[in-house]
Each structure stands twice: as structure tokens, then as C-alpha cells.
Amino acid sequence: MALTASGATVKAPRWDAHSAFGAASAALAAFLAVKLRSRAAFSALVFAAAGGLRLAATPPEAWAQIAHALLAQGFLASAFVLSLQTSSAWAVQPHFEDGGFPNLRHLAFLIPPVTLVQIALGAAYRRGAAGLVPHVSWAFATAILVMMAAAFALTQKDTPNLLKRISIWLLALTGMQLLFGVGAYLARQDSPASWLGWMAVAHITTGSLVMALAAGWSCSVWRGARTAGDSRPVELGRHS
Questions:
Q1: Model confidence over 112-140: pLDDT tens digits?
Q2: Which domain holds residue 170?
Q3: Which helix (H) or strand (E) holds 226?
Q4: Last residue in a domain, options 35, 64, 86
Q5: What's the pTM?
Q6: Who has the most CB within 10 Å: 1, 8, 54, 220?
């Protein structure tokens, strides 16, 4: 998170605190990729290495900065999924029947890419490559989808505790993300309140957390949810 927060304050590619955090993160990802031989660890390494290419973009083109922002989200999401996969809660997570509508497994396929598009639109807006309307419109659509999916997971019968905890955090941080977004917009309007400038940093950082949680939520659903046609016997559940 220090990497994301420091990146939100950088205006041009250069070697600074953000670059130092990035180099340290890449080194850690390389170590974990070799030690654990996990797909998530290798993904984090690829995202970290590719994200460093932004330093080569001089002058900083908008497309390079947007790509860098998306790669950063991929790195953080991969790191979070890796932390889940190596946790004791992941190892003992039970299966449960996904008997509601819409299907949680279908929502799990939608949430990460929809959230990533929202982050891309936000990065494009901050760099003048896109307008405010697409960013705000997609933000509300994404928030509705994410919060609906999290609520469905919480009301699903026999939902594992790990998935419940992720869903609660996803609900809370998505709501905070919207509030910080309002503050970030006001900060761009030359508001006299100096503290609003930090709302943009909070908005970007919270968006990264939502992306990571969305990836973790989807992986947890894919691991535990079973459809009605699955041969493994689990008790029927539904959204209430």
C-alpha cells in the first residue's frame, strides 16, 4: 500500500520514494516467485517488472502512465491473492452450494475486469485522456455490482468465514471509495480547503484496495462455490 500511496503523489517518472518502493516490491515478488512457485507470485513479479518500464517513458505519455497504473493494480491484486492462498483460512475453506441468483461464480468473472475498467477510466481522467462523465458513470455501475455481489455472498447460506470477511471489507471500502471520489473531484476544482488534496491520494489508494479485494473475492468464490449440478454433496444455499 505504501507503493500505491506514494505513486498517487508522483507527477513525473523519476527515481524517488515511489521508485524505491517499486524496486523493493519487485525484489520481494522475485523472491516469492522462486520460493513458492505460485502463479500469484509469478503474476506479481511480472506486474512489478512491467510497471517499472514507466521510468523509460520520457516525457511521460498519458498511455504509459495509465498502463503503469493498471499494472500497479495487477501487482497489488496478485500480492493479495498470494497472501490468501498461503493463509490457514484458505487451506480449510469449505465448499458451499451457490444456489442463488445471480450466480456468485458468474459475478466472480465480472467483478475484477469491471473494477479494472473503472480504475483505467480514473487514471485516464486524471491525465486528461478521458472526461469526467465516463469515470463517474462507470463508478456508480461498478459500485452497485460490487456491493450487490458482496451482499449476496454475505446472505448465501454456509458462506465460509474468509469470504464473509472479504465481502464486509469490500462493502465498506467501496462506499469509502465513492466518498473519497467526491473529495478528489472537489480538490481538482481549486478548492481552498488544502486537506482536500489528500482526498485524491485516499481515493486512489482505496481504489487499489477495492481492486485487490475484488480479485481475492473472486478467487475465494471460485474455490468454494459449487453449482447445483456439482457432484460433491453440499447443503443447498440461497440469497435471502
A1: 999 999 988 988 888 777 888 888 999 99
A2: 95-240
A3: strand 225-226
A4: 86
A5: 0.73
A6: 220
